[in-house]
Amino acid sequence: MDQISKQAAESKSLGEKVGTTLLKPIRVPLGMAANHVAKGEMLESFVANTNLPAPAVWDTDLKNAQGDKVRDINNKVVQDTRQFEISKLDFKPKGGSSQSVEGWVMPAQPGNPTVVFFGGSDFDRSKQSYQDAIKTMAYEAKERGMGFAVFDYPDGVNEKTARQYVNQLQQHLADQGIPLDQQAYSGYSQGSFAATYAAQSNVNAAGLQITSGFSSGRMAQKDKMQEILDENNIGPLSSLIEKRQFTEVWDNIPLAEEIGTRRAQQQADGTPVMPIAAVYDDQELFGQDGNRHMTPLIAALSNNDPTFQARITSGKDHLEMLGTSAQLASFQNFAQEAKNFANNPNRQLLEQVVQVDVAVEAPKTSVRDMLKTAASSLKNTIKEKLGLDDQSKLERMEKQLAKRENHGADLEKRKADVDRALADPNVAAALNKKYDVDKHLTGTGPERAEQMEIKEAQALKKASDKLGDRIDKNEDKAQELKDKIGAHQTKMEMKAARQQNQQNVGVAGGVRV
C-alpha cells in the first residue's frame, strides 16, 4: 500500500472498517477486475523500438565554459553539431531473460552533465508528440553544452523491474562516459517514478525535474477509476471495490522524502543544493487544488520549503503538458541550474555504491530446521497482524503516552481557568463565609443570593482540588508509560544486538563507481 493510502486507511472510523470487512466477499473480486484493467493501461502501453532514427536537433553556437561563443581562425562562430546517437542497453532483469533496450544519447561537451528523460505510460519514441518534446529539451540542453538521453522501457516492466532497469541504465550511461555525478533526471507522468527513483538511488544526482507526476501509481489508478465511475454517474460504486487488490504501487513519496532530507542536509552543511523543478496544470487530475499527487510530492521533494515555486498552467490537458510554455520555461531553468550545480567546485560528492544482486549458494537445511523456521515466521506474521510485535507495541505505547500528555495539558488548562476564577476577590470572600452547601436556600432575597455565591465558590474550590488530583494521577500514569517505553526500547536494542551477533552469513554485493 502506498503511503498516502495507508494514512487514509488509518484515519477510517471503526464503523467504516467494519463495513469494509463485511463487504469483502464482494469487494475483492471487483478489486481484482479493476486491477487487471488498471495494470493494462499502466504497463502495457509502452512501445519498444528498434533502430529508430532520431529527430535532428537544431544546431546552435558552440560556447566555451564561460558561455562565450567559440570562433575559428577566420573569426567565424563555430556551430555545435552534436546529434543523437542510437544506444543499446543489455537489460538483465533478475530471474528473467536478457533483452536489448534501445534509446538515443546526445553526448555532452566535456565536463557538463546530461539530462536523462523518462516518458509516461504511453511512452513511444516514434510518436510525433514525444519526438517534438524530446527534440525541444535536447536543444535546450545543447544550448548549454549539456547532453540528453532517452530510452525505451523494457518489455513486461513492472515496479520491481523498473527499479532494476533504472539502476542498470545509470550504470550503462556511466560506462559510456556519463558518470553518476553528471546525470540529471527528468520524468513525465508515470516516468516521474523512474526519475524520482533515479535521483534517490543516485546520491550524487545533478538534479530532478517532474512534469505532471503522481504521488503513487496506485493512487493514480484509484483517482482514474473514480473519474470514470463519476462520468458514468456510478461514483458511489467505488466504495465496493477493494483497492488493496491494486498490486502496482509505484510510491513516489518515500523516495521524494529521502531526496528532500538529502537536500536539507546539503543546505545545513552550507554546500550547493541539488536543484529540483516541477510543473503541472491546475485543471488536470494530478494538479487540481488539494490534489493527492503533485502537492504532497513537491512538499516531500522540497522538504516543505515554502519558498519553492512550481510552474503551473491552467486548462491544459495532461497529455499536452510536455508541449506547454510552462514546461519549456521549467526545463530551461532546470537545465541551467543542473549545469551550475554539477560544475560548482564547492559541490560535495558522497561515496556512491551501486547495489548488484550476487548469486550465493544456499546452505543445506534439514526438514526440522525448515519447519522451525516456518513456525517462527508464522508466529512473527501473526504477531505483526495482531499488533503484538515489538515495534507495534512500542508505537502503541507512544500513542498512549501522547494521549496522556494531551490529556494532561487539557487538565492543566481547565484548572488554570478555575484557579483564575477562584482568585476573584468576591469568590475569595465567599469562601471565608460559613454555610452548609447541602442545605436548601433560605431567607430573604439578598440572603439567598449570598448563599448562592458561597455555594458557587465552594463548587469552584472543589473542582480545582479534583482537577489537581486528576493531574497528579495522569502524571503518574504518563511517567509509568515513559518507564515502560524506555524498558521496551532497551529490550529491542538488546534483541537487535543479539540477532546481529548471531548472523554468521551476510550477503552483500557492491560496485564502487
Notes on the structure:
The chain is built from 14 helices and twelve strands. It has 513 residues and is an alpha/beta fold. α9 links the parallel β9 and β10 (311-313). The longest helix has 58 residues, at 445-502. Among the domains are: 85-215 and 251-343, Alpha/Beta hydrolase fold, catalytic domain (Rossmann fold); 382-507. The chain has helices spanning 3-10, 14-22, 24-43, 128-143, 159-175, 191-201, 217-231, 253-269, 294-301, 325-342, 367-385, 390-422, 425-431, 445-502; strands spanning 60-61, 79-80, 85-91, 99-106, 114-118, 147-151, 183-188, 208-211, 276-281, 311-313, 353-355, 510-512. The strands form three sheets. The protein has an eight-stranded mixed beta sheet with strand order 3-4-6-5-7-8-9-10, with helices on both faces. It has a two-stranded antiparallel ribbon with strand order 1-2. A two-stranded antiparallel sheet has the order 11-12. The two termini are 33 Å apart. 28% of the residues are buried.
